[in-house]
Amino acid sequence: MGPFTGRVRQDFPADLPGQYFNKVDFGGVLRARLLGNYEKTGNRVDLVFLWTEFSLGPLKFKKEFPAGFKGHWNLKYVDNDMRVFSTNKGNVFVLSKVVEGVHGTIRAFA
Question: Which superkingdom, per the lineage (predicted)?
Fold first, then answer.
């Protein structure tokens, strides 16, 4: 199955410093969320993944990651509206900033 593509958002809530959510809406009733901790040093962002959750309509499936499940981003370009980074898995993401409500939201556009 797959690949699956959807609208991706990264939320860095001000009331949860050092934590972030990845949220993916695949359209319709399928959605996914991931919660992780992060620490930025220079151009590197170290990540520790805590849990992921998939929802299909009213059904939710949540799975905690094993302790110490890690990854990282290498920031390639950052300004006030956009950032480009690669991951430890070799993926490259280009994200644009969208401000919604109280929380700043970074949304992937490509």
Answer: Eukaryota
